[in-house]
Amino acid sequence: MPISYQIELARELIRTKGTGSVTSEEVADHLRQLQTDPQFQRPLNVLLDLTACTSLPDRNQLDEVANQLKSLGGRDRFQRCAILVSRTALYGMTRMFEVLAEEQFAATHIFQTEREAEAWLSEGKLSAVELNEKGDSTRRST
Asked: Residue 126: is its pLDDT beyond 70?
């Protein structure tokens, strides 16, 4: 399966991994499956690992995903989203996704290592002012 996920309730985290060529239909199926998962009852952080993805979404596909996230409840269901990428082109598209989905998450950020992503998700309990004082201007916080 191109998309797999695991919910870690103790860590308030959804680990999602995309592998190979991922289609819009597969993303929509994943989100429908997540919506019906009994563990998905409260807002959770998302660690979205796209390092094994070979496909590259276009802007319309990213907009569609943002709308699907909104229909799932947006910030009522999702906290922060850390995105792992390894390819430059995918980095650019995930930056666009940050903008399109900014209203669906409390904050998003793109990383190259899982360790950095997890550390950022862990510091999510800091206020937006504290985050800004840390000096990372690429974070999106509201």
From this structure: no
112-131: b or e for each residue (b if 16 or more CB lie within 10 Å)?
A: eeeeebbebbeeeeeeeeeb
Q: Residue 46: which domain range? A: 3-141
User: Domain with 128 in it: what CATH number?
Assistant: 3.30.750.24
Residue 123 is predicted with a pLDDT of 86
Give yes or no for residue 129 having a pLDDT over 60. no
Question: Which whole number is the average pLDDT over 26-31?
Answer: 96
Q: Domains in the chain: how many in total?
A: 1
Q: Compute the distance between CA of residue 58 and CA of residue 77 in angstroms, rounded to an integer.
A: 25
